Target: Translesion DNA synthesis-associated protein ImuA
Amino acid sequence: MSAVPQSFLSDPATLRRGRVELAGVWRGSQLAHAAALRVQPTGHAALDAQLPGGGWPRGALAEVLQPPHARHEWPLVLSALAGAAAHGPGRIVLVAPPCEPFAPVLQAAGLPAWRLCWIDATAAEAAWACEQALRCRDVLAVLAWLPQARPEALRRLQLAAAQQQALLWVFRSDAALRQASPAPLRLAVRGVPEGLEVRLVKRRGPPLLEPLLLPAHAPPLAQVLAAARARRAAVQAPAAPPRTMRWSPGHALDRLVRAAG
Model:
């Protein structure tokens, strides 16, 4: 580590501030600078504004904590995945997902379903499978559902992601909120009537006291889903009642009956 230049220590302005300012040194009271981080925009402007570098970190673990049985993963990360897939090759690996993603929704958001690779792993195998995927150069991003992951397993995943500069999300129950984690970014997410409430539990920067409110779907996807709901409503709408016509002598049906007789 290089020594602090003597000029800094003798500078009156530095002495008055009580601290030494060095280029490239990140301070805990400030968000880490974009120049020092590789990030992927989230697709949510409000979230980008509060994340170091302005997006999801590449080469680092992003831990998402949510209530059991909640399914907030895709609204949170889908826009980022679509953006990453549009600008780079590689597969997106899903490790032990609780359910199969709906391909038309992915396609509507700009993420071709063929870019996904599904790994059906047990709880004991999931962390190992995730680590192996991260070490593969053909992998663009990894999404792993690891409800029982231990801190040492998460640390290994953090190191593996850093080596390949891959995107990595680990989804866990919010019961792990009080547990220690090596993840440089931790978010607690829950659904509210207005959309998604996101609380930044940990980031490279000062704490954020107020939660963020994000839409449940990105704008293009929301438009597609709204159109789909409208189509379903049109199909399910009751048919128009038959038109009623008054009968009178000489009506076409009356003439048809007489002709048949």
User: Anything to note?
Assistant: Residues 22-26, 239-247 have pLDDT under 50 and may be disordered. The chain has nine helices and ten strands. The domain at 40-217 is CATH 3.40.50.300 (Rossmann fold).
